[in-house]
Amino acid sequence: MPVSSLTASDLAQVTRVAELIRSHQSFLIVGHVRPDGDCIGSQLALGLGLRALGKQVRVYTPGPLMRHLTFLPHAHMVETALDMSFEPEVTAYVDCGGRDRAGQDFEPRGRIINIDHHLSNDHFGDAAYVNTRATAAGEMVYDVLQHLGVELTADIASALYLAIMADSGSFKFSNTVTRTFEIVTELVRAGASPSWIASEFYDTQRPGTLWLKGQILSHLHYECEGRLCWAEITQEMYERAGGESCEPEGLVSELRSIEGVEVSVLIHELAEGGARAGIRSRGTWDVNMIATELGGGGHRNASGCFIRGNYPEVRDRILDVARRHLAQPPAAQQVTAG
C-alpha cells in the first residue's frame, strides 16, 4: 500500500528542507527540553538518514534523557552536553514548537531547519516543514527522508516507529489517521518491531517509578464537578523515588482516562523553582488555549507549559487558568480565547 501523497503546500515545504540539506554538509540536530519518544525517535532517524547521505551529524538534546528512551539502536548518538567546538553549517530543530524549546541558553549555528507539528510553531528558520495535522514529528521526518531518497533501514524505521507510536498514544489519539497507518506499515516492512519497541518503551520501569506513580495516584484532586483532575510531583517525591529519571511515562494521559474527567493536569515542581505542567483533554476541550495563556503550547488535546517562580504560586496560577476555562462550555472557551 503506497503512502498517501503530501498536499501541495506540504510538498513545497519538504522540498525546501531537502534542498537545504543537499546543499550543506554538517548538521546539528536539536530536540526539546525533556525529550519524549517523538523527539528522540525523530532526531535519531534524521541523524541516521543524513549520515547515510555522507553528512557530518551531531544530535543534541538539553535532556534529561530518560532510561526508556535509550534502548534504540544508535541511541548513543544523542548528546546531552553541547560540544561547543562543533560548528555546523545547519541547525535542525526537530519537534520544537518554538526556538526556546531547545533550552533557554541554546543558540543555533548556521542556517536553520524547522521540522515540527505543534500549533505554537511560527515557521521560524530558513526552511520550515510545519504540519499541525501530522501525527508526530516522526511522520514528517519520514517525509523528508523519502524526498531525499534515503534507504529506510531497520534502525531508521525503528526510530520513526517509536516517534509515531509515542505521540499517537499507541495509535489511540485523535491525531491517528489513515496516513499514520500507511507510514507505520512501511516502517514494519523495513524491520521495525512493534512488540519490542512497545515493550521497551512502556514496560521497562524502575521500582522508583512505580512508587512515584503510586504516590501520585493516591493524591489526586478533583474539581469542577469532577471534570478537572490534577496531581503534582514535588521535589521531595522525586528525591524519595530516586530522581527525575523515575518520572512515569504518560501518566497525565492516564488521569484523563478517568471516568468523568475532561481535563487533566500533572504539575511538576522544578528544582530551580517554578513548575512545568502537562495538560491533556478529551473531546472538544482545547487545552492548547490553556497552555498558551500560561506561556506554553502544543496541541488541542495535549499541551504543556513551563513557568519559573515560587512553586506554590505557579501551581495555583496553572490551576486557576484551568478552572476558568472549565467554567465555560468548549464552544464558549473558543470564542472567549479568540
Question: What does this entry look like structurally?
Answer:
The model has no long low-confidence stretch (mean pLDDT 92). It is globular and about 55 Å long. Helix 4 runs antiparallel to helix 5 (178-189). It starts with 7 loop residues before the first helix and ends with a helix. A hairpin with a 4-residue loop joins strand 7 and strand 8 (228-233). It has twelve helices and twelve strands. The strands form two sheets. The chain has a six-stranded parallel sheet. A six-stranded mixed sheet has the order 7-8-9-10-12-11, with helices on both faces. The chain has two domains: 8-202, inorganic pyrophosphatase (n-terminal core); 207-337, Diaminopimelate Epimerase, Chain A, domain 1. The protein is of the alpha/beta class and 338 residues long. The protein has helices spanning 8-22, 37-52, 137-148, 154-167, 178-189, 194-202, 207-217, 235-241, 251-256, 287-293, 311-326, 330-337, and strands spanning 26-30, 56-60, 78-79, 90-94, 111-116, 127-130, 221-223, 228-233, 263-269, 275-281, 297-298, 302-307.
